[in-house]
Amino acid sequence: MSVFLFEKEYCLLEPCEGKLSRTVLRGESTRKGADLPDPDLSEIAYNHLLTHLDGYKVKPKFYVINFDDPRKSHRCNPINASFMSDIADAYEASYTIMLNLNRSWISKQGDFFVESPIILLAAIIWYLRIYQGGKYCTFPHAIELLNKKYADVFTILRSYPELENYLSPFVDAWESSAVEQLQGQIASAKIPLSRMISPALYWVMTGDDFSLDINNPKEPKILVVGNNPDRQNIYSAALGLYNSRIVKLINKKGQLKSSVIIDELPTIYFRGLDNLIATARSNKVAVLLGFQDYSQLTRDYGDKESKVIQNTVGNVFSGQVVGETAKILSERFGKVLQKRQSMTINQREKSTSISTQMDSLIPASKISNLTQGMFVGAVADNFDERIEQKIFHCEIVVDNEKVKRETARYVKLPQIIDFTDKDGNDRMQEEIQANYDRIRQEVRQIVEDEITRIKNDPELCHLIKEEE
User: How does the UniProt record describe the way this protein sits in the membrane (predicted)?
Assistant: First the structure.
């Protein structure tokens, strides 16, 4: 079973074979109120792997992606050429990146100045995929190429027939001297992507230590992706790209059973999430989404997509929520015929009347005042697994002492990369900067080589637009 857990801090993906994963519900007991140690999800995942390695036929490998600390990070290219078979894959990657960088665009999908930068970035990604067999097909290379002179970029991309139609809106503006429109289109892509120019991010996203098909039966993996709440606006695009590629790769026939568990869902835009919920079950992929309130989902995903996600999910678990979310949940749990008794007393007699009426099974007021550890919800059943009591109101009891004993035995994550040279000097910054400089130089060389090729080709030389 694969577990994909995304939180403000970490994203966990765990494959296992033919058995349910162990779920640890952690928190403070309402009885004792003792503070518990709070190891990162990466540490929990790593220690559970060490404890349960004997449960796997093929032992999974443990990988970490951490943009803040390259010493504790593996390297992975989310747009590896080997996993991009069609230009639609490039478009999907571009869409995910741009909408994570510009959340306001989610509700404006289809607008000219929203689609233009997405199409431009998609064309650049696919160009890198087909250029020299995808040797330079990485996200950092795409950012650097986008930031080159637009005259050179358009000339290069137009020299490839499969990209010509993608570039037509830009070329039309360019050839008709609609400079303001063209600069607006290009700036819509450059400005948000410029926030992601970081040597550390470039370092992590240009390596190929592992692939993202985490539930591959021959090579299962546990992947932990570290996020930083202070840099959420920057890292969310990279994380969204990793997540979208992972979901695309795991949602296939013949893979290990898997579950996609996403906590704090609104912190990242997950393109195609509604489709994943609807189709993944046939590939034995279960989806679990966690967020604080429906209003968060509506704010970050837009009203239409939020409603689809809310209505497609069959099982609901909820702690204390208030306002509109409590009302929606109360309506979802339905009504039941309830008996009401009233008594009237006056000087002469006492009378009692009994009536029945439909009323909320779990009122919104009750959901708004749930105690910590108390949950309400509804579950779905199958043809051969009927559940009589689908609606529930229950308490989850946490054994604090047992959790303390367990976490006390945890071992720390090992260091992944040692940047120390033979003289004992830490060379991390130098190596990361050298990688950054190498990427920029490679893109400069690509542009020079391609412009030279086009100039020397009689059939393409007309694409070179002479500067006035």
Answer: Multi-pass membrane protein
Query: Other C-beta atoms within 10 Å of 157: how many?
Result: 23
Residue 15 has pLDDT above 80, yes or no: no
Domain that holds residue 444: 81-201+428-463
Of 225-234, 269-278, 433-442, 445-454, which gets the smallest average pLDDT?
225-234
Residue that has been written with the tokens 């795991």 in this structure: 250
- Predicted pLDDT of residue 189: 84
> Cα angle at 334 between 332 and 338, to 5 degrees?
155
Q: How far apart are the first and last CA of the chain?
A: 62
374 and 451 fall within a common domain: no
Residue 80 CA to residue 94 CA, distance in Å, equals 14
* Whole-model pTM over 0.90: no
In angstroms, rounded to a whole number, what is the distance separating the alpha carbons of residues 169 and 150?
Answer: 13
Cα Dmax for the chain:
112
Which tokens hold the place of 282?
Answer: 């046939």
Q: ∠ CA 95-297-294 to the nearest 5 degrees? A: 165
Q: Are 265 and 120 a contacting pair, CB within 8 Å?
A: no
Identify whether residues 336 and 444 lie together within a single domain.
no
**What is the pLDDT averaged over residues 229-233?**
74
Whether 391 is in a domain gets the answer: no
